[in-house]
Amino acid sequence: MASLQLKNIKKTYGNGITAVNDFNLDIEDKEFIIFVGPSGCGKSTTLRMIAGLEEITEGELYIGDKLMNDVAPKDRDIAMVFQNYALYPHMTVYDNMAFGLKLRKTPKAEIEKRVKEAARILEIEHLLDRKPKALSGEPKVFLMDEPLSNLDAKLRVQMRVEIAKLHQRLQATIIYVTHDQVEAMTLGTRIVVMKDGIIQQVDSPVVLYNEPQNLFVAGFIGSPQMNFIDAIPEKKGNDVWLNFHGQGVKLPAEKAQKLVDAGAIGKEVVLGIRPEDIHETEEALTKFPDDVITADVHVTELLGAEMHLYLSIEDVDLIATVNPRIKVKSGDRLKLAFDPSRIHVFDKETEQVITN
Ligand code: ADP
Ligand code: MG
Predict the structure, then answer these.
(1) The whole model's pTM is what?
(2) Among 9, 10, 12, 17, which is best to mutate for testing ligand 1, by the most ligand atoms less than 8 A from CB?
(3) Which of 19, 27, 142, 343 is in Cβ range 3.0-4.6 Å of 42 for a Cys bridge?
(4) Whose CA is nearest to atom 13 of ligand 1?
């Protein structure tokens, strides 16, 4: 099995588009690494450069300790590079490559055409009727490009579990591309969040969730997404408050100090708070008396295990995830507590985190 190193990788296509820029990443043996980000952010381009299907414009790619930039795809020990195909050791290579397409009910002739085309690019046409195990040596790295993207929701969840099991079974390094943050969070040991060809943050799911380094990552990871409120920090004695629309919440001392240190007092910042960290319970209102706000309820969405409240404070929209049993309806005015330990603050201009 293998580790990978991507050093200052850049891809500029013939048309002048730079799809990936200054991409630096060390991947350890047996890691399940996810590339996640919106469509067009350079995920597939990066994966294709690792596979050798796309030339690297600048930078260095190592697999193990071997420089791979000029090594042919078939010689990279990336024995399986199946975009949109699953991988099962008991099925032939052909069936593996056809698997995702079959699930999607692609016509047989179309499946054959696409599998053969991919096999031709990978120079593995002569291996199509063998099982993956029979391929030269053990595959070192498995690359998967949005293998579940066209499945319906239920099948996608089932297949997600299958892929997690596959990783456990193979004990291999997997690089997996998706635009779906839920898939990323549930599958990855580490997640690379990308935007416009540039890495925004590389961390484990729990660190990405708790300590997003900028507004983009904060908004991208988590569902419903983190609430953002433009606010002005004010120092009152030893305390720092974040004020917005005549309301305010008090920051814990540690976070307050970070704002002071950053010179953010009196300047516009963005307050971030996840829907699950806004509470309507008596207990929370009592526990966090300095972090209670008043908001108008517009829509209530009952999801069974939880309820989403669509709220507003003047022109600021908020979402809170609350207990489904509470009695609340559209038109109500509601007191809610922000859990102060869960408040994030971002620099409005640089969009970088000031405190998590
Ligand atoms: P993602 O997989 O994250 O959706 P891609 O890597 O496919 O993103 O694309 C990144 C950027 O590169 C996009 O702007 C896309 O239009 C461009 N691009 C992708 N493939 C090519 C190509 N073969 N030639 C020119 N531009 C391309
Ligand atoms: Mg893609």
Answers:
(1) 0.87
(2) 17
(3) 19
(4) 40
Q: Report how far ligand 1's centroid is from the alpha carbon of 354 (Å).
A: 33
Which atom of ligand 1 is the closest one to the Cα of 197? 10
Question: What is the number of the ligand closest to the CA of 146?
Answer: 2
Please report the pLDDT score of residue 52 as a whole number.
Answer: 85
Six-digit token string for 163: 């892929």
DSSP H helices in 123-201: 153-170, 181-187
Cβ atoms 254, 260 nearer than 8 A = no
Residue whose CA is closest, atom 14 of ligand 1? 40
Pairing of strands 190-195, 198-203: antiparallel
Q: In this structure, which amino acid lies at residue 142?
A: F
Q: How far apart are CA 187 and CA 225, in angstroms?
A: 19
Q: What is the pLDDT of residue 81?
A: 44
Pocket test for ligand 1, best of 10, 12, 13, 199 (most atoms within 8 A of CB): 13
Residues with CB under 6 A from ligand 1: 13, 15, 17, 19, 37, 39-45
Between CA 229 and CA 233 the distance in angstroms is: 12
Nearest CA to ligand 1 atom 16: 40
> Do residues 222 and 182 make contact, with C-beta atoms less than 8 angstroms apart?
no
CA of 187 to the centre of ligand 1 (A): 24
Q: At what angle do helices 108-122 and 93-103 cross, to 10 degrees?
A: 130
Tell me, what amino acid is at 55?
E
H or E segment and range at residue 58: strand 58-63
Structure tokens at 62: 């190592």
> Which atom of ligand 1 lies at the shortest distance from residue 145's CA?
2
CA-to-CA separations, 183 to 38, 219, 252, in angstroms, rounded = 13, 16, 33
Instruction: Tell me the residue type at 4.
Output: L
Instruction: Collect the ranges in the chain with pLDDT lower than 70.
Output: 1, 79-89, 121-123, 132-139, 150
At 186, list the tokens: 């549930």
> Phi and psi (nearest 5°) for 322?
-130, 175
Q: What is the DSSP string of 54-95?
A: S--SEEEEEETTEE-TTS-GGGSS--EE-TT----TTS-HHH
Name the nearest CA neighbour of 160 among 173, 141, 147, 143.
147
